[in-house]
Amino acid sequence: MRPLQIPPPPPAAPDAGLDAQRCYQAMADKDAAWDGLFFTGVTSTGIYCRPVCRVKLPRQANCRFFETAAQAEAHGFRPCLRCRPELAPARRFWSTTDAQAVLAECAAQQLQSAIQQGLKPPSMAALAAQLGVSDRHLRRLFLRHWQVSPLQFLQTQRLLHAKQWLQDSPLSVAHVARASGFGSARRLYAAFAQHYQLSPGQLRTASAPQRKAPLPGTALVLPYRPPCQIATLWQFLKDRSLSGMESWEGQGPDAVLRRTVRWPHASHAITGWLELRWDRTQAVVHLRVSASLDPVLPQVVAQVRDWLDLDAEPARIAQVIGRDFPQALGQRLPGCLDGFELAVRAILGQQISVKAARTLGQRLVNTLGEPCNTPWPELNRTFPSPATLAREENAAHMGSLGLVRQRQKAIQALAQAVESGNLDLSPQAKVEPTLQALMALPGIGPWTAHYIAMRALRWVDAWPVQDVALQTALGVRQHPRPTQALEALGQAWRPCRSYALIAAWQRLAPQAERSDHPEPHNHKAHTQ
To answer: Is the pTM value of this prediction over 0.70?
Structure first.
């Protein structure tokens, strides 16, 4: 397989927006590094495609390039049924220079994320208030930046989201309509007829053979932008895996990961399992999801993408941190499947090694984990729920497992806050209020709060200046004021300091095993 070259992101211009020659060359090379960064409308067919589409290369004179699928559809193009634009990795819009671009890109990010997570998208008035501008001003900036209105952008996201689940899942048309924000099957049929000249039934019939899998569950393919340090990410997760709820088959980047999942649905929770395998011949991850998770399938898949950081843009990240961390090209920021689970693991890991934290986590799962049926006997439990860990009678259980009283109190306070709904640890939560809410809990200080926000809330700009390992890796440990020195140093790597943090930790990895959370139990003393 030819080594993948990572190009710089296409430069934006006020009118054209993209460099046509660069985009056409990426199409000719079928370069997955550009996947999702632009779409190509072909005037001779009326179809728009991803750069990786395997159809015959069209003439350059017939190609029109667009930054988003919404722009292509606004110009009358329909999505390709072969490369399927809805499967392209999502864009993480960000800018550090143009304030108007920041507002337009943040608005697009919020709308796109809501549809992917199966949530109701915010109104433009609510979004404008959140961003601190007027509704009219935000609409004007959005149209100027993306060349489509917010409504057109949102409608395209809904259509592509619905198209994906009609083709890839056994979900009913009514379920897909609700998950995509159409509200009813009738509206979904009308939108497909108007925009794609297709019915949902036609899409489902055409894709029925490929949905039939010899193994249980729903089989899906999740694309990402290469390069990707698969071995590093897989080892990070494997070092922290807990038997009974996570299992591995094979070694290195070819290993298959299976794990149990508990997911909130309506007024209760449902359990199931996932299986993940990286494809070594193309830039995709193969995912299987148990049938029990069908009611929340779109949300689960969106969370898996966050967990493995599949929407990362290596070229943009390298532009910011690549000079100081050249070894970080293709590095991923490990997320999580359950924010509460990640937060409990973070507390368990304070001041001890990764191996010791894993031992405590294993005892917790063995004692208080809940049964879960899977096709694999060794995979039979889920992580304890917030309701379970919030019960006072379970404090004695945690004490018998070797958890000191301070950690018991921290875990129970965390569980009570999540169970009551006062603390949201999902990627949709706002970072600053969540940090403050976490640090208000006993036993959780700035370091643990930043670590939880980085992995559970997908905060790509976390920078815990109190971290001794980070100070050591970057050579400021002996500085008279190491936290101030580290804060100043980190300014050069904004807005993706979390990637610099992971890269700095990697420098220390060969030297000795270290704790993820070197934070004292008395965080108030630590902050003084």
So the answer is: yes
